[in-house]
């Protein structure tokens, strides 16, 4: 072990750092989705599900002067092109006085990212062509849960689900399937409270996907 | 809840400071009694191991020693009894660290999380000492590299896999001081670079400030804490900053570090940039680090 004594420490250090810096070097890349964010399909439902419940930022109450049920209202808190300067981004990420307020949960990182990306792309009132409705291979985790996450979980999920109806897990969902309230509500049937509240009906495609899943036995798949 | 956590931390710090002051007043100054010192007395055992909990500490391995480290992190405690409070789900990191010289150490490790391989070089620039050479702090530099080993490292099948897209780097400066036998604090400004990120708004370079410390309760037992404040996380979220509280237990040759943390990952890139749990919601996990030191090279 004389080698260690030979004080060639600097050589060792340089060799070690060299090895570390091998392998690709330092680059700066990001993944860009080829489809820009769509206002109508991606952004608006987040606001409608999380911000426009009664007593909050809907067209009736207009809490703090904000009506977040439509494009013009949302744009009031937005600085197109700069999410960092937009009040909307600040208020949904600030550690203090965050929106949605307690007991509602903070928006998910995915939802915040969608909003920030939309602002960054210019905050335009875009609507995307929906592809034809595909109801093959519907499953709870792949089809139904994502719909609920976008349109329902703002109220019916999190730590304080509205009306004790929690659509963020199978136990809660199957309860509404069994008593018929899920289908009744999303079809705006008489005798059920029309859902999603304060915004339009789910698209025919989304409703048929949910119905297909139920007709296949409403399995936890 | 967040407030409570902060209060606990501040409380801890106050407690330590108070004990520190009380002790300082009791001791007659040795330096005064001896007059001029001729030898240099280096601060040793500022921490029981070269890691605080997740982050690097101001402590180095002795020359010629190999530290075999096995780190475990379990699932969320909030998962309840069904998952035995997270113990059913474990992720681990296995690592070998080696002290090449008194001031230089190398290490490699592999985590089950993202099958990530990591390696680092740690160099001590300044060593806290008293006596002939008086140095109030220790200053260390750590540079490391991480390599995601998943078949599809970005999680996007359309993105072609290249080596550079697997890589991340981190550089860290550690400024630490062992205030007395019991109390040590350190801060560590850190830069984490990811070669590829998930969208345009996520910064490739993440800047963070680590704050770590130790309070030795008995010869074999110490309380440790470790926090990393990330300045430019997207989406901004302070509750995701890694905060760990634990105890170090030393049993001849082994050091057990038991702790609770919201961090999932076990290397700098992972615990600073990945999605950690939320302390406020009880998304914390139990973990332990087991460290066994072997003397490879004889000490002269």
Structure description:
The complex is a heterodimer of chains A (221) and B (300). Chain A is an all-alpha fold and 221 residues long. Chain A has 10 helices and 1 strand. Chain A has helices at 2-5, 9-21, 39-50, 71-75, 87-93, 109-120, 140-151, 170-178, 181-186, 204-215, and one strand at 29-30. In chain A, helix 7 packs across helix 10. With 300 residues, chain B is mainly beta. Chain B has helices at 2-26, 30-34, 268-273, and strands spanning 40-42, 65-76, 90-101, 104-111, 117-126, 129-131, 138-147, 167-178, 183-194, 196-197, 205-216, 221-230, 243-251, 254-261, 285-295. In chain B, the strands form 2 sheets. Chain B has a 12-stranded antiparallel beta barrel with strand order 2-3-4-5-7-8-9-11-12-13-14-15. Chain B has a two-stranded antiparallel ribbon with strand order 1-6. In chain B, strand 4 (104-111) and strand 5 (117-126) form a beta hairpin. Chains A and B meet through helix 2, strand 1 and helix 6 of A and strand 5, strand 7 and strand 10 of B.
Secondary structure elements and their pairing?
The complex is a heterodimer of chains A (221) and B (300).
Chain A: H1 2-5, H2 9-21, E1 29-30, H3 39-50, H4 71-75, H5 87-93, H6 109-120, H7 140-151, H8 170-178, H9 181-186, H10 204-215
Chain B: H1 2-26, H2 30-34, E1 40-42, E2 65-76, E3 90-101, E4 104-111, E5 117-126, E6 129-131, E7 138-147, E8 167-178, E9 183-194, E10 196-197, E11 205-216, E12 221-230, E13 243-251, E14 254-261, H3 268-273, E15 285-295
> How would you classify the helix and strand content of chain B by structural class?
mainly beta
Mean pLDDT of chain A: 81
Count of alpha and pi helical runs of chain A: 10
What percentage of residues of chain A falls in helices of 4 or more residues?
40-55%
Helix content of chain B: 10-25%
**Can you list the strand order of the major beta sheet of chain B?**
2-3-4-5-7-8-9-11-12-13-14-15
Helix-strand topology string of chain B:
HHEEEEEEEEEEEEEEHE
Separation of termini of chain A? Answer: 61 Å
The proportion of strand residues of chain B reads 35-45%
Largest β-sheet summary of chain B: 12 strands, antiparallel, barrel
Overall mean pLDDT score of chain B? 86
Distance between the termini of chain B: 53 Å
Query: Rg of chain B, please?
Result: 20 Å
Element-by-element helix/strand order of chain A:
HHEHHHHHHHH
Strand-residue fraction of chain A?
A: under 5%
> In angstroms, what is the radius of gyration of chain A?
24 Å
Ranges of chain B with pLDDT <50 over ≥5 residues? 14-28
Summarize the largest interface: chains and residue counts.
Answer: A-B, 33 and 44 residues
Number of helices of chain B: 3
């Amino acid at each position: 072990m004389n080698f260690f004594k030979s004080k060639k420490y600097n050589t060792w250090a340089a060799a070690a750092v060299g090895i570390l810096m091998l392998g690709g070097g330092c680059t700066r890349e990001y993944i860009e989705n080829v489809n820009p964010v769509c206002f109508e399909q991606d952004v608006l439902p987040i606001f409608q599900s999380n911000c426009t419940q009664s007593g909050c930022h809907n067209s009736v109450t207009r809490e703090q002067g904000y009506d977040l049920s439509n494009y013009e209202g949302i744009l009031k808190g937005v600085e197109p092109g700069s999410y960092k300067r937009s009040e909307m981004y600040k208020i949904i990420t600030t550690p203090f006085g965050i929106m949605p307020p307690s007991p509602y949960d903070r928006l998910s990182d995915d939802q915040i990212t969608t909003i920030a990306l939309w602002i960054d792309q210019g905050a335009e009132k875009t609507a995307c062509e929906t592809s034809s409705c595909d109801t093959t291979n519907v499953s709870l985790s792949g089809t139904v849960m994502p719909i609920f996450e976008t349109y329902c979980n703002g109220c019916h999920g999190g730590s304080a689900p509205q009306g004790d109806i929690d659509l963020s897990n199978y136990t809660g969902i199957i309860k509404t399937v069994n008593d018929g309230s899920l289908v009744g509500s999303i079809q705006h049937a008489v005798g059920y409270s029309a859902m999603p509240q304060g915004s339009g009906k789910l698209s025919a495609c989304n409703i048929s996907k949910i119905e297909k899943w139920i007709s296949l036995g409403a399995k936890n798949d | 809840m967040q407030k409570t956590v902060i209060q606990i931390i501040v409380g801890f710090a106050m407690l330590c400071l108070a004990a520190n002051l009380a002790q300082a007043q009791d001791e007659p100054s040795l330096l005064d009694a001896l007059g001029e010192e001729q030898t240099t007395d280096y601060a040793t055992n500022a921490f029981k191991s070269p890691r605080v909990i997740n982050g690097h500490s101001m402590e180095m391995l002795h020359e010629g020693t190999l530290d075999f480290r096995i780190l475990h992190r379990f699932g969320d405690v909030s998962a309840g009894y069904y998952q035995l409070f997270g113990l059913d789900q474990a992720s681990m990191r296995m690592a070998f660290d080696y002290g090449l010289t008194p001031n230089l150490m190398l290490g490699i490790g592999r985590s089950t999380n993202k099958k990530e391989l990591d390696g680092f070089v740690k160099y001590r620039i300044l060593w806290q000492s008293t006596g002939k050479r008086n140095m109030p702090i220790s200053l260390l530099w750590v540079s490391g590299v991480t390599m995601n080993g998943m078949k599809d490292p970005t999680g996007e099948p359309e993105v072609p896999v290249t080596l550079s897209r697997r890589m991340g780097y981190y550089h860290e400066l550690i400024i630490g001081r062992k205030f007395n036998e019991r109390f040590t604090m350190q801060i560590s400004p850190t830069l984490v670079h990811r070669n590829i990120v998930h969208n345009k708004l996520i910064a490739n370079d993440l800047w963070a400030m680590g704050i770590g410390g130790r309070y030795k309760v008995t010869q074999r037992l110490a309380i440790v804490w470790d926090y990393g404040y990330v300045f430019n996380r997207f989406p901004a979220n302070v509750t995701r900053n890694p905060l760990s509280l634990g105890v170090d237990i030393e049993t001849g040759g082994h050091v057990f570090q038991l702790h609770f943390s919201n961090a999932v990952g076990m290397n700098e890139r992972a615990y600073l940039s990945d999605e950690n749990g939320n302390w406020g919601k009880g998304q914390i996990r139990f973990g332990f680090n087991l460290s066994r030191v072997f003397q490879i090279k004889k000490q002269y």
